[in-house]
Amino acid sequence: MSTTLSEPEKQQRGRKIVSREEWLEARKELLEAEKEHTRRSDALALWRQELPWVRIDKDYRFETEKGSVKLADLFEGRSQLLIYHFMYGPEFSAGCPSCSSIADSFDGFAIHLANHDVAFSAVSRAPLATLQAYKQRMGWRFPWASSSESDFNYDFHASHTKEQEEAGTVEYNFSPAPRGAGEVADWMTEFAGRSGTDWATYARESPGMSSFVLEDGVVYHTYSAYSRGLDGLWNMYQWLDRAPFGRNESGIWFRRHDEYGTPAENSGSCCCAT
Question: In the CATH hierarchy, which top-level class contains the domain 54-232?
Answer without folding.
Answer: alpha beta
